[in-house]
Specification:
The complex is a heterotrimer of chains A (342), B (448) and C (401). Chain A is mainly α. Chain A has 14 helices and four strands. Chain B has 448 residues and is α/β, with parallel strands linked by helices. Chain B has 13 helices and 17 strands. The chains are: A mainly alpha (342), B alpha/beta (448), C mainly alpha (401).
Chain lengths: 342, 448, 401
Amino acid sequence: MDAIILQILNGLDKGSAYALIALGLTLIFGTLGVVNFAHGALFMIGAFCAVTLTKFMTWEVATGEVQKTAWGSEVPVTKPLFESWFGPEVGGALIDWSVPLAILFSIPIMIIIGFVMERGLIKHFYKRPHADQILVTFGLAIVLQEIIKAFYGANPIPTPAPAAFKGSFDFGAMLGFDPNVIIYPYWRMVYFAFAAVVIGAVFAFLQFTTFGMVVRAGMADRETVGLLGINIDKRFTIMFGLAAAVAGLAGVMYAPINSPNYHMGMDFLVLSFVVVVVGGMGSLPGAVAAGFLLGILESFASMNQIKSLLPGIDQIIIYLVAIIILLTRPRGLMGKKGVMED
Amino acid sequence: MTKSNLTRRGVLKTGAVAGAGVALPTIFTASSAAAYTNEPTGSSVTLGFNVPQTGPYADEGADELRAFELAVEHLNGGGDGGMMNTFSSKALKGNGILGKKVEYVTGDTQTKSDAARASAKSMIEKDGAVMISGGSSSGVAIAVQGLCQEAGVIFMAGLTHSNDTTGKDKKANGFRHFFNGYMSGAALAPVLANAYGTDRKAYHLTADYTWGWTQQESIAAATEALGWETVNNVLTPLAATDFSSYIAPVLNSGADVLVLNHYGGNMVNSLTNAVQFGLRDKIVNGKQFEIVVPLYSRLMARGAGENVKGILGSTNWHWSLQDEGSQAFVKSFGTKYGFPPSQAAHTCYVQTLLYADAVERAGTFNPCGVAEALEGYEFDGLGNGPTLYRAEDHQCFKDVLVVRGKENPTSEFDVLEVVEVTPRAQVEYAPDHPMFAGGNLGTCNPGA
Amino acid sequence: MLGLNKKDTTLLIIVAALTLLAPFILNPFPTESGLAQFNAGYPDLMQRFVIFGIFAIGFNILFGLTGYLSFGHAAFLGVGSYSAVWMFKLLSMNVIPAIILAVIISGLFAVLIGYVSLRRSGIYFSILTLAFAQMSFNLAYSVLTPITNGETGLQLTLEDPRVLGQSATADGSIPVTNLFGAEMRSTYEMAVGPWAFQFNMGYYLCAIIMLVSFYLAIRIFRSPFGMMLRAIKSNQTRMSYTGLNPRPYTLAAFVISGMYAGLAGGLMASMDPLAGAERMQWTASGEVVLMTILGGAGTLIGPVLGAGFIKYFENIFSKINDNILHGWFAFMPDGLEDFVVTILHPFIGKGWHLTLGILFMLVVIFLPGGLVEGGQRIARLFRGKKSDDKSDEATQSTPAE
């Protein structure tokens, strides 16, 4: 029982990341009809927004003294930039909270990146075959990740969460189990809550604003909305920016969970496509539901009890589930008829 | 027109002298004018450095490449000579190898067996490389070692830690300076028993591929011999990026030590996750919960940041070693690049010098001559104390370092501190040890 | 000739000439010159060109004709390689049985996966094939290690039985792959002045097999069966209304292209007897998709060009390092030389991915029909305007979704 509760927690957490990325992908599929292979790269850039801010705050500035290193050369003694600007206490606190602060910093950056991508590149591919879209966005993804690699190297970069969120919470004690049986890290709970808020906000935005209504209408029938004299193109650009921002936010908050590296986007890319398709093309609730479903099933599959029955099941569970769902439900969980079926 | 097989440079010379002629193409196989594959006939000799330049190990590859460049510079008489001055053999004179200037070509293994072999083949077929070195994973090392055996060139393995490289997949043309899983276990177990006691229950998380399995087997055997109990061994997918669902059940299993048989990105993530779950703050069975990372890489440990503090593991070499050889190497590397070398860089540098030295002593580049010069060779002054290249399996035997994540690092390079230098005698094993059994060295192949 | 029309015959002859003379064409620079770095005429890379050419030709039969975008074709390549290596381990080092087994096993595998995946179309089909291939890769890397040798890849050992051959040669080495005694690795060198050309047995075997595959592909493209496949691509619904069931046709195309992939895999193992699991990863499947689109999907020659393009960059650009750059620009004044090297540095060696990514984007932005369209444009420039609007069926670009 306790093991199951624990894996449900894990699944919700994994599912949050899948759902956030899949949500952004679906926004782009659904509104623009574009297969965006660069979406994983946007997630990665989000994480590197956090890395960049942390690096900037802890930029080593010389204090004037010089020390000798163990390998023989002389280096100046340094201290972090923010500590020299704001003093050790305020500066230290700001550095500690750099990841949450990076959220503010990343939203405008991601939106701008989204705009530039859509206006500069994707726009010209609306009428091109999906295969061309895949090729050009895949090329873009490689370029983006190689640029990040050129600046930050190939190794992961530690980006810790604020000290207040270190350690883990004992759920078990709260639910009447023995202590230490069900523990869960604070930051992962924050991540889940954050994902829930972002997903809720996106849905509310589409459901309750005029802008959202027009976009939903455009998703359903682009031509008619255009004939009504509404500039749907401009709104679609904004949607692309929004999707980029969602991917970026997912990345920023993910940075403390696993140290970011330049290929983390590619690692997530294939999985998030599977999630989107299992959810059903063009369905936002489907993408979110599939994200959580696959996250939870993946966690269950890695339980020792199940692994001992079916060795290697955790390696293939996601793909196996995808096959079963697609064979029983032709358009995934909530897919719309005719979207990307030919 | 001359007859030849696989070699290019030799043919060029003679072909040019004979004048351009259009000859009747004849297909032919082994045995020909050249005595061995890619026999260097000009004033230079080409070495092939095959390292990961893309993919997750690209930084390690870049460091290996720096070390190779440094080694070539030293062999050609440039720089301060580095470890050539401290090396017990004095055959190298700084005039290249056998008087031939050392040139090199580089390639990208991509940390994939296929790509690594393609790259090595192009070095052998196109550039005329007479030795291949480098690499940062055991799968690649074993694959390239097999290729070099078939092609008839020497392979000086880079970073490869699996028992199989000099165990069941050993090859007569392949040589490994780096240590292996068994040695990690043998060096680490006594230190662990000392630090954490002999009554411990260990939970292993193991990367689900051959390197992970051999290391897990070695560590479990070594710790069990000292009284530890292995509660569970869970295999994790290589592609996993989030280890939470494997780490969550650990506390509940009754184990009080977690052993992470992971390397590279897997290690960074699993360690980060384990610390996130607060495992190290817990008391289990009345003892402090501990985490062990049997194979450390300083470059990668940096990626785990604060999480490595106080965590024990083993490593082949570390720049803070105080012996003469290490100091000389760190000094010339640090002067050239501005930061200290990694263990991957060290092993690649040493392998290049050892190869060059063996050629000098053998008086030929013929792989069979070189292999004979390396087999059973005892040397010193290359950073790990007195070392033996064992003839039976082409594995180096030397001291192994047990290290711990430093509590107060002074710089981003100062991540690990050496806890103990385990003497060579303690990590030696018989060539037919069960963990290494099943292979066959075969006979050296000079190609051609 | 051979049942082809004039245009196709010309194309086949051109391809045959290019392939058979490749050792000359790909080695245009003298061996000791600085530009020799760009020579691609060494056995391993030439073999890769034609083998991946076969792979891409086969992929194009499915994707170019029916429009079904498989994202898991590398699985068939991998299965073919594993079967071939097992044949070398158990039977003999002759490549013929290995290649035959590779084609058969990958064909069976394709029947299985195709039968299930073709129940869906569009992106749902792509994801089903991707899922099957990723499952194969993940299992081959871990649980199936006894069959696949996991991370290292399946390789030959001195202990293999090889019932019709020998376990080890007289001098204690592993025997090499051969065709009735002719070793795949045997290479004949021809020196002409400062040039050196390599003629490799294995390459010519691959080249001939590729020409046969190419010929078969032309026949399929021109056959009623090919017409049927195009009909499926243009309007499947209408086709069903006429009372035709498209499934058997698509399944046949899927299996044929799977067998092409298996053939490529078998040849790869015959040239270099090691089968690595990475051959089945999604990136490998994606690579053949990129090759086909880059060259020109639906065209006959496009996929082969795309395959050559990507393999060239992977093998040649990744080997250029700063040292070589300094060698090229040594004629410049020191400051300028360093400057040029610094500018070029991010694009070579470890930056070859970046160069490739940029080229993907440039090609697809400016040449919507892939490299074939680039060739057509150049040809048009030379021929002048008169043949401008004459649609060239052999190289016609029919981009697909």
